[in-house]
Write a structure and sequence with these properties.
This protein has 358 residues and is mainly beta. It has one helix spanning 6-12, and strands at 31-32, 40-41, 46-49, 51-52, 59-66, 69-74, 80-83, 90-100, 103-113, 120-131, 137-144, 147-153, 167-171, 178-183, 190-196, 199-204, 209-214, 220-225, 235-237, 242-245, 250-254, 261-266, 268-269, 272-273, 277-283, 286-291, 296-300, 307-312, 329-335, 340-345, 350-357. The chain is built from 1 helix and 31 strands. The protein starts with 5 loop residues before the first helix and ends with a strand.
């Protein structure tokens, strides 16, 4: 899995996809006029699409598309105004089908839609440090009353013998003691998990299916296939729907009964979309997210995918025991009673209770 640095994205102005690409037929001078376009837009702007027609060719009509979705048409004599207010973040391949003198030609240009706001960097303080099972390759973490529910994967260690099997488990957050556990077969790589309607949902990495468990006994009650062939990474819920990640820059909104797709959004800062979204936690109408390979947490607006704030937790890694199987920060559990967050990592021997300074 490729690692990305969210703090670098915020500070250095890196852009994942930002290039214009005019596509012209050598025998056709009709094209989208890119001289009037920018590379980067935000959602409070509109794009004025116009056809460059230096030879004054008689145009019958022009039909415009954004990522193959029709956005409008006109006679090519005036611009088409394309509002971005309801568009998802990311690259937009704008295509124009131009009909002129009995012929059809095609022209394209690539623009990017990113957030208009640079995320705020938040500080935190460590309230407590607790033990954590070093064999737990943490994928999901969530409070159920005073107990932590944790899902784990097989791990990707180098054979030191400390990595454990995939599991769902109940953990005493103060002592790290595993109170109850259900270990999965070795062929199953467990991923993120969340609690909804008194059921525990868990994703799998490559098996293309989710599991539903009895929350009290941790016995598996149901297997539900994903809506398409995809990786399973992180999982949370808003009390009604599930929110799922697959290692890309997208978060999918899922029906918990059928696991069918209801909608999705793309996560972005003002400098680009942010890939490798991993573990998720729903907190007071926002999504807190880990990103694979990053030692930070992003706070995301689930209505549009905008990264509003970032907490840099890179200092925590120096506080855990070093060993060959030590992996990245992953695992966010919000404790409503104390308004604190329990965070850990894959094969970390410690869990940290932190307070975010607002």
């Amino acid at each position: 899995m490729k690692k990305h640095n969210l703090i670098a994205i915020l500070g250095l102005g890196l852009i994942f996809t930002a290039c214009n690409d005019d596509k012209k037929n050598e025998n056709n001078t009709l094209a989208i006029d890119s001289s009037k376009l920018k590379q980067i837009y935000n959602t409070n702007e509109s794009v004025s699409l116009e056809i460059s027609n230096p030879n004054n060719t008689a145009i019958d009509s022009v039909v415009y598309f954004s990522n193959d979705v029709r956005i409008g048409s006109n006679n090519g004599k005036q611009p088409l105004n394309f509002s971005l207010s309801n568009e998802k973040f990311g690259s937009k391949l704008i295509k124009a089908n131009i009909y002129a003198q009995g012929n059809k030609s095609e022209a394209t240009v690539l623009i990017n839609l990113f957030s208009k706001t640079q995320p705020e960097i938040l500080n935190y303080e460590i309230v407590n440090t607790f033990p954590h099972d070093m064999k737990a390759y943490t994928q999901g973490l969530e409070f159920y009353g005073d107990i932590l529910v944790e899902s784990t994967g097989n791990g990707e260690g180098v054979g030191t013998g400390i990595k454990g099997r995939s599991s769902v488990r109940k953990v005493n957050p103060q002592t790290g003691e595993v109170i109850k556990i259900n270990e999965l077969p070795d062929a199953i790589f467990g991923e993120g998990a969340t609690i909804l309607n008194n059921k525990l949902y868990q994703l799998t990495y490559k098996n293309n299916e989710a599991y539903v468990y009895n929350l009290e006994t941790l016995e598996k009650e149901q297997t539900i296939p994903y809506f398409k062939k995809m990786d399973g990474w992180g999982l949370t819920n808003d009390g009604t729907n599930l929110y799922m990640t697959d290692g890309t820059d997208k978060i999918y909104i899922i029906d918990p009964t059928t696991f069918k797709l209801k909608d999705y959004f793309v996560v972005a800062t003002n400098n680009g979309t942010v890939p490798a979204i991993n573990e998720l936690e729903w907190v007071n109408g926002k999504i807190f997210a880990n990103f694979y390979g990053q030692e930070s947490i992003a706070i995301i607006n689930p209505t549009n995918g905008e990264v509003e704030k970032v907490i840099d937790l890179s200092a925590l890694r120096s506080k855990v025991t070093k060993h060959p199987d030590l992996d990245v920060l992953n695992g966010i559990a919000y404790n409503k009673k104390t308004d604190t967050y329990f965070v850990t990592g894959k094969n970390w021997d410690k869990m940290f209770e932190i307070k975010i300074n607002k």
